[in-house]
Amino acid sequence: MQPIDDSAIVRDGNVLILAYDHGLEHGPADFKGVPETADPEGIFETATHDAVTALAVQKGVAEAYYPSYSDDVTLLMKINGTSNLWMGEHDSAVNCTVDYAVELGAEAIGFTLYGGSNHEVDMAEEFRDIQEAARDYGLPVVMWSYPRGQGVKNDSKPDVIAYAARQALELGADVAKVKYPGSQGAMEDVVRMAGPVKVVMSGGSKTDDLAFLERVESVMDAGGKGLAVGRNVWQRDDSEGMLDALEQVIYEGVPAADAV
Ligand code: FBP
Q1: Full set of structural domains in the chain with CATH
Q2: pLDDT at 2
Q3: Which residues, judged by CB distance below 6 Å to any ligand atom, belong to the binding site of ligand 1?
């Protein structure tokens, strides 16, 4: 754990990562309802909103688009990722080195760990190398901590999500991105397990505006430090309006019902 409050991905102690690695993780299905979201350019534009502290993308998208946005967007390089076409036990290929991420302008590193997968040991060892390389550059490390695979019967159980947050602390992440555990009380437990690691909620599939903002409010009230969100922002007709509302809930403590 290193202090990251002065890093580019943190604003007033909190974090709002715009995630856009879906083209790899989910494929074209996520872009179908709103076809223009297949074009990364529009998402980079969205990421220039003041509420967004970092944009998470894979290497290829960063290579192609980040040079035009390096002054206005903070790049979080998602360093591993796998397509939905892969049908084996949960695993994630390391697609980029930390050195190359830095060369491309990354100011933070993202890594998915599938705790409970038969590949957990290999993934944890990959994480060790990546975390230590990131430390050499002083870059924050965000763990997408997603228990999945043969060891996990129910990945939305509060205890499993609390364990995911704890894994992030134990292995040396600075931010733990976890699923919402179902209630504010359960989220408080998740935050407790993470110690000084900043816990952020993973956005999930698109939901009703108010319901989504209320969930974010409950994460903040539980001591969470923000959000890493994709579809609940860029699948909306008014992404900017949603980011305006999230800005109020995350950084200004405005209740969801007022911000919506
Ligand atoms: P969403 O807010 O759209 O859920 O994005 C967050 C994210 O973690 C992405 O970074 C990633 O591509 C996706 O969710 C993974 O989703 P899944 O839970 O289906 O693996």
Answers
A1: 7-259 (3.20.20.70)
A2: 79
A3: 19, 21-22, 25, 144, 202-204, 228-232
